[in-house]
Predict the 3D structure of the following.
Amino acid sequence: MSTRGLQRTPCALLTLVFVLAAVTLAGAWDQKYRFPMKVRAPKAGVTDMGIGGIGVASSTLSSDWHAAAGAPAAEILCPKRGYDFALGMRPFFTTLTGSVKAMSTGGEGTFLNLHGHLRLPNERTQWELYGHLKLWDKVSVMMEYLPWSWSGPGHMGVDGNFAGLLLKKDTPITSTLDITTFRVTADYDVSFGKDLCFGPNGEFNVIKWNQRVVTGDGDSGDFAKTILQPAIGAHVRYDPKNTGYFSWFKPYMEGRFSWMNLDGLGYSTMDLGAGVAPPVSRNVDGGVKLGYKTWRLDGTRKRILTDVGVEGMYMDFSLRF
């Protein structure tokens, strides 16, 4: 049997390490005030009073240099944190690994490595789109569209059978693999202090798998399947507010994982990242994030036997309203 994709550390263990690191940093970065000293906006309606030509200042204003600028009446650096709706896109710098056994309706097919046998490229940049909607204080929903595609020419690495198409070693081929996913994710947040939240999440994936191999003689084999796959997991977010003047950038760190084995097919994801969301107008923030994520589909579902992984760095660009 061909070599399968590399085994990865369980997502749950990595998430636990991330949570512990976030909690430790939360205590280390905890400063006395939410925003830096000597930045203050006076309360509405508070004025100096003059008596007999002598100005008498309010006791509140006289202590301006001793009050934290993050007091309710004086949040002028970051008047708005968080958002209700976001639209974004992600360039995902993928590395594709693993093998697939695609079978015809008659059960014909062999286990073939995507790169070593079918000559699909290991690395390619994919583009993803998403929308994020906060429904209530603790509940949010994300909808994602992930149209991944790999294709390339080469020569068959071994004798094999792809969905009924017989392939001989060194036969010139052109392979294509499209994995298009529409994902809906719901998060529930539980606060662990003013900066840290953690909670469960559930998701539902509609995965459209299309694979095609064409030989130099014009013969072709096609395989298509739609996979419905739910998953559950957890997420954590650290949103430090005690970062001095850097608070204007609204830095944050977050991580999540999801997993489920259903009807013989295992599905798992992991996502870790850090970013900033500085304001671009009064009610709009511009988000930039750098992260690393993994996606894995392992097992069998009717006519497909797969051990495929996709992983890599990504960048996230968004507008938050």
